[in-house]
Amino acid sequence: MGKEGQEIKEKDLEIIEGEFVTISQSTVRSVEGGHVEMQQVGALSIDGERIEATQCAAVLLRGEDAELNQSVSAITLGNRVAVNFSCAPVTVSRAETSINRSAAGVVAAASVKAEKSAALVVLANTVEGELTTLLDWKSALALGAVAGGIWGMLSLLRRK
User: Fold this and answer.
1) Are the C-beta atoms of 63 and 51 separated by less than 8 Å?
2) Who contacts 95 (Cβ-Cβ below 8 Å, separation ≥6)?
3) Is 24 exposed, middle or buried (CB count within 10 Å of its CB: 0-12, 13-18, 19+)?
4) Long-range Cβ contact pairs of 31-36 (< 8 A, separation 24 or more)
5) In the predicted model, is pLDDT for residue 158 greater than 90?
6) What is the value of pTM for the model shown?
């Protein structure tokens, strides 16, 4: 198929480009497209305007609108990010992040809407819903200061 639309199933691929890309049950090194739909895909890098990933694993997922459903993404970047029944260690969003029954590591967004989810650290102007966090900004700052102090003491002792 041309670059306008591609539909791929059960293949091991290197680089996929297209305006409308649909991939299922495959592994891909890099995907670039306007509208990317994936189901049961393992990918290193995904870049698109609209990304919908269902039961996928990705290292870097970057798009205007990104939606993860029952998926894992190490780093998720976008304007609007939705994480549903998924795990996202690092999520950065310019506008809004929606977390629904998911686990997250570090979440940074202008606003966060959550439902029965957990996160390690959340950096946001507004947080709505039920979100359990391990560290708020004050405790994260204190933990960083203590870790920096210990690191500095150990480096001084090592020099002698």
Assistant:
1) yes
2) 79, 80, 109, 110, 111
3) middle
4) 36/63
5) no
6) 0.80
Q: For 11-28, how does the pLDDT look when each residue is reduced to its tens digit (9 = 90+)?
A: 677 888 889 989 999 999
The C-alpha atoms of residue 110 and residue 39 are separated, in whole angstroms, by: 29
Cα gap 37→141, rounded to integer Å: 39
Tokens of 82: 């939705």
Q: CB burial class (10 A; 0-12, 13-18, 19+) of residue 123? A: middle
- Return d(Cα 50, Cα 64) in angstroms, integer: 6
Closest C-alpha to 38, from 80, 76, 66, 79: 66
Mean pLDDT calculated for residue range 109-121: 94
Find how far residue 44's CA is from the centre of its chain.
Answer: 12
Q: Determine contact, residues 15/1, Cβ cutoff 8 Å.
A: no
Q: How many CB atoms lie within 10 A of CB 5?
A: 14
| CB-based contact 119:101 (threshold 8 Å) | no
Long-range contacts at 65-68 (CB < 8 A, ≥ 24 apart): 68/102
